[in-house]
Specification:
alpha+beta
Length: 311
């Protein structure tokens, strides 16, 4: 078996700062979460250190080795991440949906056109590319604009839960429908709406696919410092050939260097791109001293309820 490529220690330290994997940069408020997503370009929601790429949960924990506990309902960091996710949904300043290969992801507004160029489905192609169940759900949403899951199942006629979930996932992956709010009472449900209602300008901006590959690769490389074989594809849901096209485009313009097939690194040294890091509103720990572990504030929503298992 081929050994797994190792990330150099200086690159890991750069990622710690860029992806808020250190205590002094840990995310505690929705404004900090929005700023984090804008800087990294895109981030997963509830993934931990076992998955590559930036993650809101890891940024909330503020440490590189964060792992989701078995009982997430009782974990304060998981609860805070879930609460921040709910607030991000309600504010609607960043894109959130379950995208390619079932990856739930936050996307900064500047990258929405590029993701849409790859995975979006145009209205003229909906009959050919969407299932009958997805089209039925979409027809109702275009008339009502926003509906809860139970009402949408009833009105669309897709009453079987598994079929409805599959249809909603299909519409999310096509960048047509997004969750607009999480409601907890009288029971937990999502409100669904059309993505164009919140991100109309970004979703109607046309971008060439090769440009989209390049800019998604650029956003990841700026945050990661370097990539190893398969890493960009695993994080974003791109195929390996698509990820390679994006990375090679960066090499062609002198933005990155390729030391070996699949290994790409920023052309500028790590020391030379410190200005790309997210400024911290809290003091950074002094050298040789571990940052003080903060107490995680209690979620301000549904605090007395169990946190639903991450989707």
């Amino acid at each position: 078996m081929r050994p797994k490529p190792q990330i150099p220690s200086d690159i890991e330290e750069y990622r710690d700062q860029r992806w808020c994997r250190e205590g002094a940069r840990a995310i505690t408020t929705v404004v900090e979460a929005e700023r984090f997503i804008e800087h990294v370009g895109f981030a997963a929601g509830m993934t931990d250190s076992r998955r590559p790429g930036p993650s809101l949960y890891v940024a909330v924990c503020g440490r590189r080795d964060a792992v989701l506990p078995r009982h997430v309902q009782k974990d304060p960091e998981t609860s805070l991440t879930w609460t921040l996710k709910d607030q991000l949904l309600r504010r609607g300043k960043v894109y959130y949906a379950k995208l390619a290969r079932g990856k739930t992801m936050f996307i900064a507004p500047r990258l929405i056109p590029h993701f849409n160029a790859i995975w979006g489905v145009r209205q003229s192609d909906e009959r050919r590319r969407l299932s009958a169940q997805a089209r039925a759900v979409l027809k109702v949403l275009r008339n009502e604009w926003e509906m809860a899951s139970s009402d949408l199942r009833k009105e669309s006629g897709v009453t079987e839960r598994v079929a409805f979930t599959r249809a909603i996932d299909e519409l999310q992956a096509s960048m047509i429908v997004i969750p607009s709010e999480a409601v907890y009472l009288p029971k937990f449900t999502y409100l669904w709406t059309l993505a164009v209602g919140r991100h109309g300008d970004a979703l109607t901006t046309r971008v060439a696919r090769d440009t989209a590959f390049r800019e998604i690769a650029r956003a990841f490389l700026v945050g990661a410092g370097m990539t190893i074989p398969g890493e960009l594809a695993r994080v974003t849901g791109l195929s390996r050939p698509e990820a390679g096209r994006g990375n090679r485009a960066l090499v062609a313009e002198g933005y990155a260097t390729m030391s070996a097939p699949g290994f790409y690194k920023l052309a500028t040294t790590v020391e030379g791109i410190r200005n790309l890091l997210i400024p911290s509103s809290r003091p950074v720990a002094t050298a040789g001293r571990s940052p003080v572990r903060r107490s995680v504030p209690a979620p301000n929503r549904a605090s007395s309820q169990a946190v639903p298992a991450p989707r």
